[in-house]
Amino acid sequence: MFSSGRFGRRPQSAGRFVAATLLVLLLIGLAGGNDLARADTDFATWLADFRAEARAAGLSDATIDRALAGMSPNRRVLELDRHQPEFTRTFWEYLDNAISPERIAEGRRQLAANADLLAAIRARYGVQPRFLVALWGLETGYGSFLGDFPVPQALATLAYGSRRADMFRSQLIDALSLIEAGDISPGRMRGSWAGAMGQVQFMPSTYRRFAVDFDDDGRRDLWSSVPDALASGAHYLSEIGWRGDETWGREVRLPEDFPWVLADLSLELPLAEWQRHGVRRTDGRELPQADLTASLILPMGHQGPAFLVYDNFRAIMTWNNSSYYALAVGHLADRLAGGGPLQGPRPAIGRSLRFQEVTELQTLLAALGYDPGEADGLTGPRTRRALRSFQTEIGVPADGFPTLDILGRLRTAQNGYSAR
Ligand code: CA
Prior knowledge:
Elements: H1 4-56, H2 61-68, H3 75-82, H4 91-98, H5 101-113, H6 115-125, H7 129-140, E1 149-150, H8 151-161, H9 165-180, E2 190-191, H10 204-210, H11 226-239, E3 249-253, E4 269-270, H12 271-276, E5 280-281, E6 293-297, E7 299-302, E8 306-309, H13 311-319, H14 323-336, H15 355-367, H16 381-394, H17 404-419
Antiparallel strand pairs: 1-2, 3-5, 3-8, 4-6, 6-8
Helix pairs in contact: 3-8, 4-14, 5-7, 6-11, 7-14, 8-9, 9-10, 13-14, 15-17
Calcium ion binds next to loops.
């Protein structure tokens, strides 16, 4: 309830607040200006040092000048690099966003329109067309958004000012090598703020090692040549363990008494073993009798959908180290081939935990005597293992999946523990 006194003081407080805010903004502005001036000087020094390294790596002065002359750091790139999302999407939020009906329809159209090309690529690299088109769809909407950051500037900015400076420095050398080789001019080398380029969003190191000139025009052009882009994607997949005679995995149905501790990407069992644990296809039929090993993953814990994933799933995670991404690629590929939507439930677990909540969860687990590792706000293998132990202790399914509900139970357990 607001008191009248509070309303009475409000205009004055607001006036003070505005004045104080203006002063703070002014100070921030001055400090920011100094920072920027200093940053520009430091950047010039950094750039001179980098030019020497690029020369030592065998790049010509002409290439270095064309790519780096007159460059200053890109502030937007630094902002994006420093931005930490408050919390991530749940699996269903991610999937619904990644795989719209429009994306499925356009993917089917592209699959048909490029059938001959995709068959030729499959003959050379052994990658099934539906997976290439699914990757293409998720990376750039089938070539419709390639990113518009100038890549040499973005990479130089990150090599200068990011926490992962060494990695970006090496990517910048690779980007200059592509320019030197005549694959692309510096002006046309545009991409994501982190330097991913072209229709399948290759980083320069991947581009340099795996891009191919599939249309035989003498240049590897992943921006405007669909044959070059899709063949390069297939070449890369073939080099990171893709199996052309296998699929990615499948959605499955689990029995209620399933041993939840087995659901972990680091654990692989033969299909026959999963069959013995009661794992079935979503329509209830038995698993295929193939000599395969698979991991079982639960992207929303035991209340959500379940998937058995094979070697090709791991290849997709090598392409982009995210299990949501790999599931989206696999599922979109199935949809492009005529498959239906996922069958698994959409559990009402609320939103994903915020960074601070995962940190709290880790702190609570440690206080209760479990070993979740460092309280870093990330649900890694150790945190999952500790969470499973806690879940086993209190008699709930040990899926190692952090939810608001389990955080509440940890708080309660800690209060009881402190009271003892
Ligand atoms: Ca070409």
